[in-house]
Design a protein that fits this description.
There is one protein chain. The protein is α/β, with parallel strands linked by helices. It has three domains: 147 residues, 3-Layer(aba) Sandwich (Rossmann fold); 122 residues, Nitrogenase molybdenum iron protein domain (Rossmann fold, 3-Layer(aba) Sandwich), CATH 3.40.50; 96 residues, Nitrogenase molybdenum iron protein domain (Rossmann fold, 3-Layer(aba) Sandwich). Helices cover 45% and strands 16% of the residues. Strands 1-12-11-10-13-14 form a six-stranded parallel beta sheet, with helices on both faces. Helix 10 crosses helix 12. The chain is globular and about 65 Å long. The N terminus is likely disordered.
């Protein structure tokens, strides 16, 4: 990914030390729900299997569409024919699950560690099972990916396989809950863009065809590799703030409309009612958030657009906004709105960042699960970063819910700590 500076005169702390973040395997939890005929086979250790089981929870009423091919000591030592074993496991899986149309072989560690070239395995198995099943490979290794980069790696693997098209069309990039995607499609149709392709599609047969007349807008800010893959196919990016809150959603829709020659007045007319609903919903949380300081640890790459939303629509004061990557081509519009107020950091040196946090003593800290409980014990209110990825937060109808996610821990702190105002 390319790191970029937000604006002239705004220094960025670039840190390359110990970091604390989930690995990219976690993204399978929301991808397997979105891609309804896909299966994610993680090739890794028992530790990886336990991670997925605990992250996904217990699914009682449905068999999940992910699993782990566990590497034993003999596999890691090269004593077994790992290629033959993966072929056997895939054949057994596909014979039992006739609903699978896409199979992703997901490496939990680099090939050098697991002693298995999954890219070659995917190529061989794809030739064997096509066209009934498409077999692809990506890495979810914590050595190579952070929390949300698993989705980026998955979609970047899909991009070269998408069919070609010269059709002028809009492609929205990034997995959204189905109900949020349907709301987005409704807004775009009213504005005048009735045909919208989405990647990832809900089913393999609905995959978009792309080409030089495809314009794409990102719904998630962590898709830098997929963006580059689409641009290599000739598609062009529509730069815009991300659709968090009333302002961000309106700016996103306006940028998309402009790319298709639709005037801003049309967007304003169509969105007047949902904009008013979003502002009203946000106002309930703003009473709690206004004037409060917030500190972001790097986790999901959502940090910059969320800081922009909280500062401009909820009255919060971002002290530090840390993010795994600062990608100028993706985050530029949000950075411009955020301005030069907060301290910006890219990457992480967790001990140094903890020192800055303790010096700042913010009202709210957004961080991973591993840091939240210790910080709460130090008297700091925290918000789990992972919840911001698993909760529907995009576009107008979710704006109040998004603000509420940040207001709740402050209200809880006020109830538990006498003398602290919510």
């Amino acid at each position: 990914m390319t790191a970029g500076c937000p604006s002239a005169g705004a220094p960025v702390l670039r840190e390359r030390g110990q970091h604390e973040v989930f690995c990219g395997l976690t993204s399978i939890i929301w991808l397997h729900r979105k891609m309804q005929d896909a299966f994610f086979l993680v090739v890794g250790s028992r530790t990886c299997a336990h991670l997925l089981q605990s992250a996904a929870g217990v699914m009682i009423f449905a068999e999940p569409r992910f699993g782990t091919a566990i590497l034993e000591e003999s596999d890691l030592a090269g004593m077994a024919d790992a290629q033959a074993e993966i072929d056997r496991e895939v054949a057994r899986l596909l014979s039992r699950r006739s609903d699978i149309r896409q199979l992703f072989l997901v490496g939990s560690c680099p090939s050098e560690v697991i002693k298995l070239d999954l890219a070659k395995a995917a190529e061989r198995l794809d030739a064997q099972f096509a066209p009934q099943v498409r077999v692809l490979n990506f890495s979810g290794s914590g050595i190579e990916t952070t929390f949300t980069e698993g989705e980026d790696a998955c979609l970047a693997a899909l991009a070269p396989r998408l069919p070609a098209s010269d059709k002028r069309q809009l492609l929205v990039l990034g997995a959204l809950p189905d109900v949020v995607e349907d709301q987005m499609r409704g807004l775009l149709a009213e504005i005048g863009i009735p045909e919208v392709a989405v990647l990832p599609a809900r089913r393999a047969g609905d995959d978009p065809a792309i080409g030089p007349h495809t314009r794409f807008a990102l719904a998630q800010p962590f898709l830098g590799d997929t963006m580059a893959a689409l641009e290599r196919r000739g598609a062009r990016h529509i730069a815009a703030p991300f659709p968090f809150g009333e302002e961000g959603t309106t700016a996103w829709l306006t940028a998309v409309a402009a790319a298709f020659g639709i005037p801003a007045e049309r967007v304003e007319a169509v969105t007047a009612a949902p904009r008013a609903r979003a502002r009203k919903a946000i106002s309930a949380a703003r009473e709690t958030l206004d004037g409060k300081s917030i500190f972001f640890f790097p986790d999901s790459q959502l940090e910059v657009p969320l800081a922009r939303f909280l500062a401009r629509e909820c009255g919060m004061r971002p002290v530090e906004v840390g993010t795994p990557y600062l990608h100028r081509g993706i985050l530029g519009p949000d950075l411009a709105l955020l301005g030069d107020g907060p301290r910006l950091s890219e990457g992480q040196d967790v001990e140094r960042q903890l020192d800055r946090l303790r010096a700042d003593r913010p009202d709210l800290t957004v961080c991973g699960l591993g840091l939240a409980n210790p910080l709460e014990a130090e008297g700091l209110a925290t918000k789990w970063a992972i919840e911001l990825v698993f909760t529907p937060v995009h576009f107008y109808e979710q704006a109040g819910d998004l603000a509420g996610l940040f207001a709740r821990p402050l209200r809880r702190r006020a109830l538990l700590t006498p003398g602290v105002a919510a």
